Amino acid sequence: MQGTMQDRPLTLNHLFERAERLNPTKEVVTATATGVDRYTYGEWADRTRRLAAALDSLGISPDGRVATFAWNTGRHLELYFAAPCSGRVLHTLNIRLFPEQVTYIVNHAEDEVIFVDRSLLGLLAPLMPTFRTVRHVVVMEDGGQGPDPEGVEVLDYEELIGAQAPAEFGVDDEYRAASMCYTSGTTGNPKGVVYTHRSTFLHTMGAMLADSVGVCESDVVLPVVPMFHANAWGLAHAGVASGAKLVMPGPNMVPVKLAEMIESEDVTLAAGVPTIWMGVLPELAGRDTSSLRAIPCGGSAVPKALSEAYRAQIGLPILQAWGMTETSPVASVANVTTVLEGLPEDELADVRASQGRPVLGVELRIADQATGEILPWDGQSRGELQAAGPWIAAGYYDDPRSPESFTDDGWLKTGDVAVMTPEGYVRIVDRTKDVVKSGGEWISSVELENEIMAHPKVAEAAVIGVPHPKWAERPLACVVVKPGEELTKEEVVEFLDGRVAKWWLPDDVVFIDEVPKTSVGKFSKKDLRDRFDDYTLPTAGD
Fold first, then answer.
1. How far, in Å, CA of 463 to CA of 478, rounded?
2. 491 within a domain of the structure (yes/no)
């Protein structure tokens, strides 16, 4: 039919040029070892164009992979746009992966150049001989120490871009690959997820929706979530697109420094994983946090007690969101709808502690793992959460494992066990591999952990299934006690009595110094299962 709308490509060039033209005076701030660096979007845009020209001068292929091994900084933000806007593919390397995993993903992606912060060279330099396709290493000086790697050309970032004239951007294919990120690889090698210009553009719009995170021009955004993890949850792109002031924490990821930045820069939106916010909360005491309007949190379920502690101390609960590398990552956000505002406070707390409702553009459903039957949104039926949408992965990069992670009709099988309410709120009760399978029934390790962490003396708690001769598995609670407190197994079990079903009560409680974490800050149940592989429960003889 004639008279329809224009077909314009949805590329990152548009987001970049919007910041360059409409918001050239807005700031990008980076915390450094000696203070802060500030510059404007106008200056950032000029440097980004020069960086793109530098990629040309290095002979990086038109669709070559440009790797980063870096903290959240203004320079990293330059790379976020210089690579894809010049037709290359940005590949953010997770600095917390095991060395052999870093080697695997660099070689699997066929990275041609790596941009690395000086303070991280000590981690990267020993691995250089294992990289098959890397021809250049560009060092970004950040006040840190680290040896130059041998056997490869080492360049200085500032000298490299200073020698270039600004490049023009001409990417006009929205289906062209823009960036890639590998999963954290808790089981097997990490899997590569490739984001297109179109998917990133639409995800950015999703992050800017009022019913989502709502990033806008008046915001001051502090992405605590690393830029090497799942696009920094889209906050870097949304910040640039909206013209929000961006505050980059650099290597200053300790709670007191983050609290200082929130106060000194009048941060309105700060996003990170639950373990970060556990540490930041006490550091916010006595500070002016009146600028904060939202604290998006994801990566793992936010303990209800933590969210309500923020609400009690600063008048603002944590904003729970859900996603994964394969979902770009934001897929749902737990904003409270007007329909539910009149609920009793304890029920509202449960809504805020859920993983939220799907962001516009994302479809979610739950399915029976055994039969594939699609289950109702009744708040009771439990099944595997599946996702579909324009920023949801359709497969993994050059990986034979792709078919096992997708349904026949193309939905992503997330590996999360969830229920969905009639109002569309998702409540993830566990990972499929972490559910405690006891006597043919499932015990949610996540729900049990959240109840344990509601105890005032508990800092962290993780629950794993331990073999049992009668019940197949029974829950073992691994508990970290807050400094200066004392706690017994009996106190934990007594606290849980009445809060969970009797048959959910852990068969034993062990006290540990720290719950091991994955490279992205989630509880590492695999490490705990390995640690307690031969553990015999006191009930094993019952």
1. 6
2. yes
